[in-house]
């Protein structure tokens, strides 16, 4: 896999990134409740600071929850930064924590539901909640799993993200988003579970505009196409960050019946509707820092400008 940026991991411009990695290494020795308290404090400070990410998250919340009071949206904004910062700091546990510790901290509520009928291949639909990486790494401990991977912007972060996601898998099977659909098809035809993250805005290519909280959103249409080409069953899986540093809980949802259908737009809209339902259950754990509505129908301005 190609590095995300310069191959020189020790370029002077990356000193700050290395200091951040060192900070996470130190933190991973702390009990998770202490890490959570620090993450909450740092998240609170970041939420108070004006900036691009704050504007993006505030815009997303206003678009998706227009009937929510401004005070409630401000509270959700603060909590979004807190859950996100907690997840960032707790990556140190993913990168250096022992398998035994991770098994204690990340519990699977219903592991018996992971493989559905046990006959067909499985696509684990994993929306972008803050516990996404925790859940993915925990599942790899029990199942040899394929997953899609978007390279990080710098080679240091890329190195450690790859290490964290693959350290319990031998050999690792991480598919770069730039490799396209063929490696995913092969993995599914080999009956490997595919941990799939399809709910970000990647532009118009291979996307359809379907509602997300009532707003047309460019959404990758690969989920129904993969399911149709491989006969795979779609089993949603969501990882919840627990309060007070108690860890994470992974939950599988029932396999989708009659999926995919004959209408790709309807199939993708069904996915978005499912994700909406889960967001309403834990609205401050979703990735609101992402510009989910950056790609607009022709002639419609960006809400982030």
What does this structure look like?
This protein has 305 residues and is an alpha/beta fold. It has a domain at 101-285. The protein has helices at 15-27, 32-48, 52-64, 70-89, 91-96, 99-105, 132-142, 155-166, 182-189, 222-230, 264-281; strands spanning 106-108, 122-125, 146-149, 174-176, 194-196, 207-212, 215-220, 233-241, 248-252. A hairpin with a 2-residue loop joins strand 6 (207-212) and strand 7. The longest helix has 20 residues, at 70-89.
Features:
single chain; alpha/beta; seven-stranded mixed sheet; 9 strands
Which regions contain 5 or more consecutive residues with pLDDT less than 50?
1-6
Distance between the termini: 35 Å
Rg estimate, integer Å: 19 Å
Biggest sheet, in brief? 7 strands, mixed
Kindly state the percentage of residues in helix.
Answer: 40-55%
- Count of runs of 4 or more consecutive helical residues: 11
Number of strands: 9
Task: Compile the SSE list and pairings.
Elements: H1 15-27, H2 32-48, H3 52-64, H4 70-89, H5 91-96, H6 99-105, E1 106-108, E2 122-125, H7 132-142, E3 146-149, H8 155-166, E4 174-176, H9 182-189, E5 194-196, E6 207-212, E7 215-220, H10 222-230, E8 233-241, E9 248-252, H11 264-281
Parallel strand pairs: 1-9, 2-5, 2-8, 3-4, 3-5
Antiparallel strand pairs: 6-7, 8-9
Helix pairs in contact: 2-4, 3-4
